[in-house]
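Hello, quick one for you while I still have it in my head. My current little project is about how a certain protein chain folds up. You're getting the sequence in one-letter code plus the fold written as tokens. Would you mind checking whether the tokens look sensible for this chain? Here's the protein in full, and shout if anything looks odd to you:
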Amino acid sequence: MAIKPGLGRKTSNKNPPILSHEFVIQNHADIISCVAMVFVVGLMNESTAAFASAFISLHHNVSGEDPSREQPYGKAYTYIAGIKDYCAIFFYTLTCIIMHAIIQEFVLDKISKKLHLSKFKLARFNESGQLVAFYLLSFAWGAHVLLKEGYLGQVAQLWESFPDHPMSFLHKFYFVVQLAYYLHMLPELYFQKIKTKEEQQPKIVHSISGFTLIVLAYTLSFQRLALVLLTLHYLSELLSHIFQLIGVFDREERLAKLRVVNNGVFFLIRFATSVIGVLTLYYGIGGLRSLLALGGLIALQGYLVFSFITEQLRAKREAKKEAKREAKLALQTKRPAKAPKDKVKRKKESDLPEADQTSPSPIKQKLK
């Protein structure tokens, strides 16, 4: 029986051997879906429900009650960070891999086939398309939690009663999904057949640094501050990758003025992040742990600004080189190639009658 094409792979006339690298890569979404379904089916069996719920449900709740006659609506559950969260992170990492394959096959691949992009532009289109989906969801989700919890209206909640900061269900689930997404970037290097070191290194750094920073903020009880800063950061990244997607369609000239908005938003968010960090960690919480966190936050903002300026300068240099190259090519196409003078002279003489053509001198013949 032939293997049918699965999610996240291109169809091929030849079916690769089962359990080979090509088979796993082509069918990785189907395989991981089956693994995830094992945990879901485990919830239906009483003997395995406790084990399966450790991977699917959220744990470490500290308050909340189920609805009853006395309280028809019950009380909202609140949670803290705990060791069982890593089981949930593993399960939702599998979910992120499946969603990555769905977006790639049913959205990005269908669009790219109609555009006929080059290899470089196709890679940029796929990367930015995936990140736009993630940043858009994360920004909308984070903004919803901020408005619901009232952190924007009462900024003092970011440091009051620290470190006793229990999280609502959506707040904790937000961090579980964030950690799962950054963790899923590592196996995606294998599934996407990224082999060159130049392509692997930035993705690995992005994955490990994002996972490390979020897990530190999550376990050290800085969840409220991290939620605010991540929401702001994702707004900046969302705009940046939207402009990268627009650049793929060769419309950068029309949107050159709008790039100023992107640059302005980037620096404004870096400034707002530093101000909120100083207010919360230095004036609000204080202590050695907060000062170390503040130092790391300021260093991170400085690194992001430095990288942004370096990238802008590099892009300008490349644009100037490309403009000079195009100008030379245009000049060469306009200016016709000139034949050598002696060839032109011989051509003119050959057009004359034989009696009128100049014969070479005897001296030149002897020299020859």
Summary: The longest helix spans residues 288-334. The chain has a mean pLDDT of 84. DSSP finds twelve helices and three strands in the chain. Residues 200 and 273 are 29 Å apart (CA to CA).
